[in-house]
Design goal:
Blueprint lengths: L8 H15 L22 H6 L3 H18 L1 H4 L5 H14 L13 H10 L5 H13 L3 E4 L9 E4 L1 H22 L3 H7 L2 H16 L1 H4 L3 H7 L4 H11 L9 E5 L3 H8 L3 H13 L3 E4 L6 E5 H32 L1
Antiparallel strand pairs: 1-2, 3-5, 4-5
Helix pairs in contact: 1-8, 1-9, 3-8, 3-13, 5-6, 5-10, 6-7, 10-16, 14-15
């Protein structure tokens, strides 16, 4: 699939604003110039990422970002809370990146979006249509009038959704920089077209990757539930030591009622997720009633980190590929 992009004046300043917080702790061992054509060092594979000693720390930092994002903007965070919504949101935004002003056949419209999400089995036509209407109601999408035919309903991202997606992308680049001392964030600030090219390329690769498209059984029921992914992020943040003891990683006390209140879901729903995982042998509890300590199995942690590594690897490949072509696009 060939992607065509349009420049936006505010993208560069938005990336720079969001990146300022990240750049304060990104090690700058290599300059942004090293990412120029012919001098890239290559991206990290999923195998390299999952074995990297800094990966657990990077994943925890990313989990902290997502938890903070949810607390600050729950409505926006819910667009990526389940795996299905994550795929729909990312596919929607990738289509927005294809829009060329004046070309009504390009970019995002309801027909094209429904065709994409139904073809990959993410949602039904009615669910996809309702999802777009929800995005329009919350000002995450806007209608763009056609110059040629008023019957055509062109959809595009808004400054709100642009900031959210750029923030997500900068967060991923920040953690990749943390692992290898790179300067991806700096490169994206200098040339914002990298983001606009890399996001669709990475999402297309992830949709085509069965290891990401179909999460392992040990975590799939969390990810298929509304906000189940956020529960996993809470677990990752609570782990003080990832070293297993008898094939178990201690999470600590888990207050189900507090989690239910924080994420606006029922305690019964969370208990159902935990019970299913416990029946699968991937988590459990130690201690007496009132002092129970949650633990995760090594398999749960391995499956989760391998799944996450797929995303990081796709984004890193897309970044390096798009840096190598950005000068021509500019």
């Amino acid at each position: 699939m060939k992607y065509v992009f349009r420049p936006r004046r505010k993208v560069a300043s938005t990336i720079a604003t969001i990146a300022k917080r990240s750049l304060s702790f990104v090690p700058m061992a290599r300059g942004a110039a090293e990412y120029e054509i012919g001098t890239t060092t290559g991206w990290m594979t999923a195998e390299e990422i999952v074995r990297h000693p800094e990966f657990p720390s990077a994943d925890r930092q990313l989990a902290a970002r997502l938890v903070k994002m949810h607390r600050e903007s729950p409505r926006l965070a819910r667009l990526k809370a389940s795996h299905r919504k994550w795929l729909m949101t990312q596919a929607m935004y990738a289509l927005c990146m294809q829009r060329v002003p004046g070309r009504d056949a390009s970019g995002l419209n309801a027909t094209r979006f429904i065709e994409v999400v139904t073809s990959i089995g993410v949602a039904s036509r009615n669910t996809a249509d309702a999802f777009l209407k929800e995005l329009l109601a919350y000002k995450f999408l806007q209608e763009v009038p056609s110059r040629h035919d008023k019957r055509i309903h062109i959809l595009d991202s808004t400054p709100l959704s642009d900031r959210a997606m750029i923030g997500w992308f900068v967060g991923q680049m920040t953690e990749l920089d943390r692992m290898d001392g790179g300067s991806r964030v700096d490169a994206c600030v200098q040339n914002p077209i990298i983001f606009r090219r890399a996001q669709p390329r990475a999402i297309e690769a992830l949709i085509a990757n069965p290891a990401w498209r179909y999460p392992p059984d040990s975590i799939s029921h969390f990810l298929s539930s509304e906000l189940g992914g956020m529960i996993i992020h809470e677990f990752m943040l609570a782990i003080a030591d990832i070293a297993p003891i008898d094939d178990r990683i201690v999470v600590g006390p888990a207050n189900i009622l507090s989690l239910a209140e924080q994420y606006g879901i029922s305690a019964t729903n969370i208990k159902r997720m935990l019970k299913r995982a416990q029946e699968g042998g991937v988590l459990g509890w130690d201690g007496a009633h009132g002092r129970k300590i949650l633990w995760l199995s090594q398999r749960f942690l391995d499956d989760y980190t391998w799944w996450q590594a797929q995303k990081f690897a796709a984004l890193d490949e897309a970044f390096h590929f798009c840096v190598a072509t950005a000068s021509r696009a500019t």
